[in-house]
Design a protein that fits this description.
LUC7 like, mRNA splicing, coiled coil, Luc7-rel, about 75% helix, mainly alpha, rod-shaped, mRNA processing, 12 helices, about 350 residues
């Protein structure tokens, strides 16, 4: 990559897609499904293992440092939860790597002769010492490249001690099995990167393996996967707590609203009840008043009727008395009348008086 391309990539990584106003680059957002979420989180295996024996080639999704810068800026304001997609991607990759490791172990078990558990343990000890030597040499080279010579010398002294232990372990392993089978039990599979390691590899070969880009890249991927799992678990727990808190708040609001509605219903019911009571009391008072008025009217009407009857009776008695007086006076003047005539006249007079009284009534 030229210096200009490196400078352009650095500007993209720092400022994002909007650094030069290029609208064509802004058409694809970092939230697009075509963008690699593992690349945004700087853990895509295609980038980490590029140039190694297990180079995966170009990723099928978009890789752009400017989009990564856009994501980093946006993730400071809100949680985008891209870690879940990246975790799924790395889990599938590591699962495939572990599958290849188990397959390689199976092939070695088929090609190599079976040995006893004691001999296998001695061979495993030699392999462990080889790994320790390789890791220490890789660390010493790294410290020497950084200019920390004293620490590098101390690690090299530890390497000499481990070499002595390895020599003793190899002698024990050589003496525990026949010479014909010794050369066949010389390979093992690296648990990290699934590469083959020889039992009799020299220090330079071990240092190159454990300090190489392939082995360190797999270590980086596995560590990033563990970190993503922890981050996803924490965020999911936080989301569950937020969801539970929102549910409790919603339920509390619903309870309060139900209480307020029931209170309002009770108030309306009490108001309607009091209103009905007032109406009932007013109707009862009106009924009592009407009954009282009707009773008073009937009483006055009866009183007037009785007074009229009394006045009519009194008038009738007066008229009768006057008629009787006039009749007595007339009879005394005319002499004794005929009893038939008197009788008929009396009946007629009594009939007239009854008719008159009935008409007055």
């Amino acid at each position: 990559m030229s210096a200009q391309a490196q400078m352009r990539a650095l500007l993209d990584q720092l400022m994002g897609t909007a650094r030069d106003g290029d609208e064509t680059r802004q058409r694809v957002k970092f939230t697009d499904d075509r963008v690699c979420k593992s690349h945004l989180l700087d853990c895509c295996p295609h980038d980490i293992l590029a140039g190694t024996r297990m180079d995966l080639g170009e990723c099928t999704k978009i890789h752009d440092l400017a989009l990564r810068a856009d994501y980093e800026i946006a993730s400071k304001e809100r949680d985008l939860f891209f870690e879940l997609d990246a975790m799924d991607h790395l889990e599938s990759f590591i699962a495939e790597c572990d599958r290849r490791t188990e397959l390689a172990k199976k092939r070695l078990a088929e090609t190599q002769e079976e040995i006893s558990a004691e001999v296998s343990a001695k061979a495993e000890k030699v392999h462990e010492l080889n790994e320790e030597i390789g890791k220490l040499l890789a660390k010493a080279e790294q410290l020497g490249a950084e200019g920390n010579v004293d620490e590098s010398q101390k690690i090299l002294m530890e390497v000499e001690k481990v070499r002595a232990k390895k020599k003793e372990a190899e002698e024990e392993y050589r003496n525990s099995m026949p010479a014909s089978s010794f050369q066949q039990q010389k390979l093992r599979v690296c648990e990290v990167c699934s590469a083959y390691l020889g039992l009799h590899d020299n220090d330079r070969r071990l240092a190159d393996h454990f300090g190489g880009k392939l082995h360190l890249g797999f270590i980086q991927i596995r560590e990033k996967l563990d970190q993503l799992r922890k981050t996803v678990a924490e965020k999911q727990e936080k989301r569950n707590q937020d969801r539970l808190r929102r549910r409790e708040e919603r339920e509390r609001e619903e309870r309060l609203s139900r209480r307020s509605r029931s209170r309002d219903r009770r108030r309306r019911r009490s108001r309607s009840t009091s209103r009905e009571r007032r109406k009932l009391s007013r109707s009862r008072s009106r009924d009592r008043h009407r009954r009282h008025r009707s009773r008073s009217r009937s009483h006055s009407r009866g009183h007037r009727r009785a007074s009229r009857d009394r006045s009519a009776k009194y008038k009738f008695s007066r008229e009768r008395a006057s008629r009787e007086a006039s009749w007595d006076s007339g009879r005394s003047e005319r002499g004794p009348p005929d009893w038939r005539l008197e009788s008929s006249n009396g009946k007629m007079a009594s009939r007239r008086s009854e008719e008159k009284e009935a008409g007055e009534i």
